[in-house]
Amino acid sequence: MIEDHRQPNIAAAAAPADSIVGEELLVDSSTDSDSTFGEAADSTTTSLASSVTNYRYEHGRRYHGIEDGRYSLPNDDAEVERLNLQHKVWEIALNGHLYVAPIEHESLNEVLDVGCGTGAWCIDFADAHPGVQVLGTDLSPIQPHNVPTNCQFIVDDANEVWVYGERFDFIHTRTLLLGVKDWKKVLQQAFGALKPGGWIELHEFHIPIACDDGSAGPESAVMKWGTSMYEGFKKFGVDSMATAKFREYLEEAGFEDIRETHTKFPLGPWPRGDKEKAMGALFQKDIGDNLYGLSVKTLTQGLGWSTEEVDKFIQEAKADMNNPQIHTYFPIDIFWARKPR
């Protein structure tokens, strides 16, 4: 098992929506120093054995080998570490819970996690629900070997035709936004893959990032990073603001009881509150320490920048992210909805 992910006290019940970090983040004036909050534990880099390992190497990073241009982020060990750290941020945000939807536990048989990344959520869910079969899918086989017996991973592309049939009781996605070009199609297929009465839950951020107090203006490097990434993703056919249309797409697909909540993940331990500081410190490390790897392909291939331009720009944006007097955050949108019985 994966000691650094699996928590013996993972909450099996749904997180009350009002317990999630709210939309208002208040600045803690005491963070105008170089202090940080907490340390991330080491995480595994063991990969799942698979024939789909024809990786590509660019800009000193490794990328998946399925359909060039489909997904612009790396899949190497550094990215595995980053995704595992990001899982911890979500864990704090949801107070240890794994979902928000009011799932009927006694009716759970099969669960699907689309774009599972390192498989951390699948492993936690499988541990918390040992009688439930959990399937995680992703473009890259970067999940560990040693997992609960009720957990399985396969290489699959959510953008292609789904062949599961009406099978799952719960479908979950988290930070899948940059891997989907047609969310309307994906949500229609998710509707078809759910049993009547089943739930879907979407945990997604969007880019550009934001700042409420004017500490980072539109000409600052960190805010330019957000807008540049948004434009770069568009060149790959990805809308990094797609969550604005999720309710419409869910309704069109046929879902009912559609609900949503919105929060913010701070970039740095600048907000008041221990929970917010912990999230901000880890998320700053998650994004800031990996900013070049997250950005280089999008800015070079998407916007045509030179690697020299990217190097200089990323240094400036990272300096802003690490500046305690600059208070930026990623907007986070969570949706959950039910398929009619």
Description:
By secondary structure, the protein is α/β, with parallel strands linked by helices. It has one domain: Rossmann fold, CATH 3.40.50. Helices cover 30% and strands 18% of the residues. The protein has a 7-stranded mixed sheet with strand order 5-4-3-6-7-9-8. Strands 1-2 form a two-stranded antiparallel ribbon. Helix 3 packs across helix 5, helix 4 crosses helix 8 and helix 7 (291-302) packs across helix 8. The longest helix has 17 residues, at 77-93. It is globular and about 50 Å long.
Query: Which structural class do the helices and strands define?
Result: alpha/beta
Integer average pLDDT:
84
* Termini Cα gap: 37 Å
Q: What is the total domain count? A: 1
The largest sheet, given as strand count, sense and whether it forms a barrel, is: 7 strands, mixed
Secondary-structure blueprint:
Blueprint: E1 56-58, E2 61-63, H1 77-93, E3 110-114, H2 120-128, E4 133-138, E5 151-155, E6 168-174, H3 183-193, E7 194-205, H4 221-235, H5 246-253, E8 256-266, H6 274-288, H7 291-302, H8 307-321, E9 329-338
Parallel strand pairs: 3-4, 3-6, 4-5, 6-7
Antiparallel strand pairs: 1-2, 7-9, 8-9
List keywords for this structure.
single chain; 341 residues; alpha/beta; Rossmann fold; seven-stranded mixed sheet; two-stranded antiparallel sheet; 8 helices; disordered N terminus; transferase
Q: What is the compact description of this entry?
A:
The protein has 341 residues and is of the alpha/beta class. Helix content is 30%, strand content 18%. It has a 7-stranded mixed sheet.
